[in-house]
Amino acid sequence: MSIVAGHSPVTMPTDPLLEIYLERRANLVRFFAARTGSVSRGEDLAQELYIKLASRDQSAITVENPVALIYRVATNVMLDHARGDARAVARDAAWRRLAHVSVGGEDIAVEPAADDAAASRQRLRQLVDTVAELPPQMQRAFRLHKLEGHSHADTARIMGLSVKSVEKHISAALKSLTLRLGR
Amino acid sequence: MISIWRNNDDMRGERAAAWVVRLEADGLGDAEATTFDAWLSASPENVAAFDAALAISQTFTVNAEQVAEGVSQRQRRTVRPAMDRRYFVGGAGIAAAAMVAVAVAPQIFTPTSTDTYVTAKGEKRSVSLADGSRVDMNAGTRLTVTLARNSRSLSLDEGQAVFDVTHDADRPFTIAVGDRMVRVVGTQFDVRRRDGKLSVTVARGAVEVRPQDGGIGKAYRLRPGQRLDHTEGTEQARVMAAEPAEVLAWRSGRMVYREQSLADVVADLNQQWATPIRIEDPTLAATPVSGVLILDSQDAVIRRLALLVPIRAVRSDAGLVLQRDIASDR
Fold first, then answer.
1. Which of A166, B15, B17, B246 makes a 20 to 30 Å CA pair with B321?
2. Which of B23, B68, B113 sits opposite A101 (nearest CB)?
3. ipTM > 0.90?
4. Judged by CB atoms within 8 Å, which residues 40-69 of A form the interface with B?
């Protein structure tokens, strides 16, 4: 058996960059989702990226590193749509908590049922417990950055550590929390 | 053997968390983005680990205020005993103050609301529900969850998921799937709904599958190792023995098939990649397939599929078309 590149009746030139985009699409959605704080925003931006790539000037010189180019364009797409940041998602959720709750009200949430889960006493206690049980440095870094919203740089200044160390502590905290809360 | 495996998982979890933290910060260079992409593409386990870490990270971002408050309170309560020791002479008064502080802990009620979860092509996700149940979603899946005071009502609109349900006698756990209702009491099972066909396989516990209001047919109670197949709009359902480990294998990137039609296999595969696969010959579409497909790349999977069924794939502008491979027909 062989996979034959058949000749289609309509000769349509394949765009190698778009082919690579399609292969990488799931990764790109994750990239956007992590950077913007929302999986649904991730999907939107992946669409925007596709449009931007598809409508570029193809007569330009062949690209040496297509994956790197795609991610560079992706970053630009994100800067263009700067409203999609994690803080906005958090503000959104806070408002919804206050202005809630219509019984049976529909909430299309592509991210995990965060504010509904936290609204449940059990889930919130679980989240608090796991953070409170982190080793001191990891806990402090995680609280300052993730929970209180300080940047990596500010957290480093407050804790008297390098930014690299702070990132290591936050990362270790997240790994431990994922292990205990994910399964 | 087992300890090596656990170590890999451990390193993977570390890597995944590191990537989430890196991506959430600003200023990611080109080289890093490419490395991230390569790491994700390296294995479905990496993707799963990333998704898990991202989900937890975003949970904390969205609930930052409440968790911060909760952790602070926890700290204040742990500090209090030390203070009690210092002001031991005033014992009773301090104890009373401590009790007041605990009583003031915020009361959070459980509102009823509905959330919808969707996975894209090639995306698997694990969702923790507020009641402690867990749902592993396969690609191309849409699931609605309504947790209320007296019930846990889900709806699998499309796709496939494994449910790990916590026992709660006061809150029946039900899943509406097409014209059927799956009712659960503390168990683990797989539900698949694609192209109007439903399949339920039980790994642990017991599950009841019955017609929804307006549906026709009998109700069935399934035990571990049993599987029910049903076509929507019809009355019948087939119950047969099944190996749950095989049916749940998709969670680790393996699809195991036993005498399932090529059409069903292709329906599953089309959830993984953007390039759609089509079968034009209806007889070919009905051909039974038995075997294991490991989901790495689309080309590799189709090559492996061709070892199980006599097919060849032709690339057209609308995707891939599977045709009967005359050369290998005997």
1. B246
2. B113
3. no
4. 43, 65, 67-68
Q: What is the pLDDT of residues A24-49, one digit of tens each?
A: 888 999 999 898 887 878 888 888 89
Are B94 and B202 part of one and the same domain? no
Q: What pLDDT was estimated at residue B101?
A: 26
CATH class of the region A11-109: mainly alpha
A65–B59 C-beta distance less than 8 A: no
Strand B237-241 and strand B311-316: pairing? unpaired
What does the pLDDT read at residue B172?
Answer: 83
**Residue B288 scores a pLDDT above 60:** yes
By Cβ distance, the residue of A6, A72, A121 closest to B30 is: A72
- Give the nearest partner residue to B314 out of A4, A108, A178, using CB atoms: A4
The pLDDT score that the predictor gives to residue B87 is 34
CB contact under 8 A, B71 and A181: no
> What is the full DSSP assignment across B252-269?
GTEEEEEEEEHHHHHHHH
CB contact under 8 A, B328 and A1: yes
Whether A115 and chain B come into contact, CB under 8 Å, resolves to yes
Residue of A nearest to B127 (CA): A112
pTM of the complete model: 0.46
Same domain, B9 and B50: yes
* Domain ranges for chain A: 11-109, 120-182
Residue count of chain A, please give it. 183
What range defines the domain where residue B70 resides? 64-103
Please, are residues B189 and B207 in contact by the beta-carbon 8 Å criterion? yes
HSE-CB at A94 with a 13 A cutoff on CA atoms is 13
B222, B125: one domain: yes
Q: What is the pLDDT of residue A60?
A: 64
Q: Which CATH class is domain A120-182?
A: mainly alpha
Region of poorest pLDDT, from A87-91, B2-6, B104-108, B261-265: B104-108
Task: Pick the last residue of a domain from B224, B243, B262.
Answer: B243
| Contact across the interface for A127 and B317, Cβ inside 8 Å | no
Beta strands in chain B, from DSSP E residues, in sequence order? 113-118, 125-128, 134-137, 142-147, 152-164, 173-177, 180-184, 188-194, 197-204, 207-211, 220-222, 226-231, 237-241, 254-261, 277-279, 288-294, 311-316, 319-324
Domain end residue (candidates: B243, B270, B303):
B243
For A8, the closest chain B residue by CA position comes to B316
Q: Are residues B258 and B218 in the same domain?
A: no
CB contact under 8 A, A3 and B303: yes
| B171 confidence band (pLDDT: 50, 70, 90) | confident
The distance of B210 to chain A (nearest Cα, Å) reads 24
Is the same domain home to B208 and B309? Answer: no
